[in-house]
Amino acid sequence: MAASPALTHLQLLEAESIHILREVASEFERPVMLYSIGKDSSVMLRLAQKAFYPAPIPFPLLHIDTGFKFREMIEFRDRMAAKVGAELLVWRNEAAIAAGTNPIALDTKRCCGLLKTQSLLDGLAHYSFDAAFGGARRDEEKSRAKERIYSFRDKAGQWDPKNQRPELWNIYNSRVHPGESIRVFPLSNWTEMDVWQYILQEDIPIVDLYFAKDRPMYLRGEALLPIEQSFVARVGEQPQMIRSRLRSLGCSPCTGAIRSDADTLPKIIAELVSFRSSERANRVIDHDQEGSMELKKREGYF
């Protein structure tokens, strides 16, 4: 009998992620998948389709809408949810939005606290979700490297990195008391390169903002700032057409672009080999202060 061919690196990652998705679906009463619309969410969505095929995805998608997402992201979100037949829930902190909350009037830390963290906690509590999938990976940022695959959250939805359950290989602890919950990270062991290679292999649709093209940008120092409905130009600033793309998607006032000619998936992968900076280097919210991401995560942010 011929020996079975060894699984590839991507097949091993895929198998682990599908195992996690199925474990959570079987262990928890009300799981949900947080859908941020970015490349990691796109991969997670494809894995969920594979995990339960030919049945539909057995949990809803939840998007935390700050009101500052790129228009292309919102259009893509609605199109993809309809295409895969998933239930899409959208939660917004309407009171904060109505009060004019934005990163310029406040600052990015307080703006994120209201429009992302508080909105997420309120949305999870409103629907009584006891497990929430997120697309965070350990290679993205140092506080995310501390996360277990099953990340325990207390009744306030907060994270204490010193109060987590040990994980031995693929043995996960799903026990929670009423009001407590688990954040789950099926892509923890993936890298940015793995994600892009899997998108290429599986022909996964992604937001066009990831591909380079000539876009109107404001140049502020070294930062390329995309023009969106929420952008406020400074006196004397004029937009320029710059060939660029976004490496990471977030709120438009806080997400810079990079100069790039990578207008196809193979070009993005080739470009990635030369990068020495984090994919989140152009995300303002990660640089508020030392350890800012960990502080946000302790408060309930993903």
Strand order of the largest sheet: 3-2-1-4-6-5
Overall mean pLDDT score? 90
* Ends apart, CA distance between termini: 48 Å
Low-confidence stretches: none
Number of helices: 9
- Helix proportion: 25-40%
What is the count of β-strands? 10
Element-level helix/strand string = HEHEHEHHEHEEHEEEEHH
Shape call = globular
**Percent strand:** 5-15%
Biggest beta sheet summary: 6 strands, mixed
Radius of gyration: 19 Å
Helix vs. strand class: alpha/beta
Give a topology summary:
Elements: H1 9-27, E1 31-34, H2 39-52, E2 61-64, H3 71-84, E3 88-91, H4 94-98, H5 108-127, E4 131-133, H6 142-145, E5 150-153, E6 181-184, H7 192-202, E7 213-220, E8 223-226, E9 240-245, E10 258-259, H8 265-274, H9 292-299
Parallel strand pairs: 1-2, 1-4, 2-3, 4-6
Antiparallel strand pairs: 5-6, 7-8, 7-9, 9-10
Structural description of this entry:
With 302 residues, the chain is of the alpha/beta class. It has helices at residues 9-27, 39-52, 71-84, 94-98, 108-127, 142-145, 192-202, 265-274, 292-299, and strands at 31-34, 61-64, 88-91, 131-133, 150-153, 181-184, 213-220, 223-226, 240-245, 258-259. It has a 6-stranded mixed sheet, sandwiched between helices. The protein has a 4-stranded antiparallel sheet with strand order 8-7-9-10, with no helix packed on it. β1, α2 (39-52) and β2 (61-64) form a beta-alpha-beta unit. The radius of gyration is 19 Å and the shape is globular. The termini are far apart.
